[in-house]
């Protein structure tokens, strides 16, 4: 094994996480309060005047809440570095799902309530006639229909049954239509929203929020990755097989120590010399970063990475995630990995500061052949005194992190769990089982750090 010397740890990071969280909560609450203010005066009046006006008022409130959450969704998708570090990828993933489905349901309430309210107000029109009139005569409505269709498509592919049938890269590509859908809704809001008509400051406020959200996406998902990719000039130097269907991609670049990059981070990669270069791939570092070299180890499931040639250019976004030494609370560390989830933990074992006997690795795999990077782990055990436990076997009962038939407990492997930070990476159900077992063993939530390989 060639041990990569860790890069110097970055020292110029963002403000403390608690201030970033407070600022984020204040911005979200203030935005929601202002949008609600737009509704209050006409909305409360209409609720008591007439049933048609009351239903339309409810529709307007649902529409305002929907657009507030949709703009929040855009900010969540922007991957703003300070927010990523403060809240973590797992938290953002949960929020992203909740905000997405809630905003869609509110959008449906807005459409239905507005349609019914207009139909009741225009008594001489039938429901279908009124729907036709709304779509074809009100300004911006055709764009709004197209935007709603795109958002419905994105919600459809976000359902678990649909996600299981799609590759991540295709799902991610189709997800980008959400940006277009939200943009198509904006003219309808500004041209038909009674809350904004005649209120110059209200219109300016909504445009400011929209442009801030859109600008965040352009800045952090487009401009910053392109600038970093150009500056650091990553290229593939070697593709090395590590096991059945698993390869390590070695890359070389320049001034990589100027990136806020640590072991445990993952990045979105585009390999210009391989198939599917238009799609990004989320892979963790499998070795501690060096000023001139990076490495990832991946399960190459149809991505064509095994056929990459040396010299291929690499574009990247990131780094992302909080599975790093920055969240560490204790001197001792316990790392739990399942399958290809070993990759960020192998990098952490290389970079983290610990004395012999203060680090333990529990590595779960279905077969011996699935234990990738095994020689490197053995070398780390010899060089740095890591205690390694390999758990090989088929899936155990639901909610159990151990292989079927394994007669071992968490405290057998980590005798003093409350004195350890737990870093856990693998399939979501397995991660949940490990975290539950750790909590039962007396480990505080602050000492539990996980990265879920799901989307």
UniProtKB/TrEMBL annotation:
From the record, give the transmembrane residue ranges.
22-40, 52-77, 98-118, 138-159, 171-190, 205-224
Task: Cite the entry's keywords alphabetically.
Answer: 2Fe-2S, FAD, Flavoprotein, Iron, Iron-sulfur, Membrane, Metal-binding, Oxidoreductase, Transmembrane, Transmembrane helix
Membrane topology listed for this record = Multi-pass membrane protein
| Domain FAD-binding FR-type: residue ranges | 229-326
A Pfam family cross-referenced in the UniProt record is Ferric_reduct
Cofactor or coenzyme needed: FAD
Instruction: Give the main localization category.
Output: membrane
PANTHER family the record matches: 1,2-PHENYLACETYL-COA EPOXIDASE, SUBUNIT E, NADH OXIDOREDUCTASE HCR
- Official protein name in the record: Ferric reductase-like transmembrane domain-containing protein
Which organism does this record belong to? Luedemannella flava
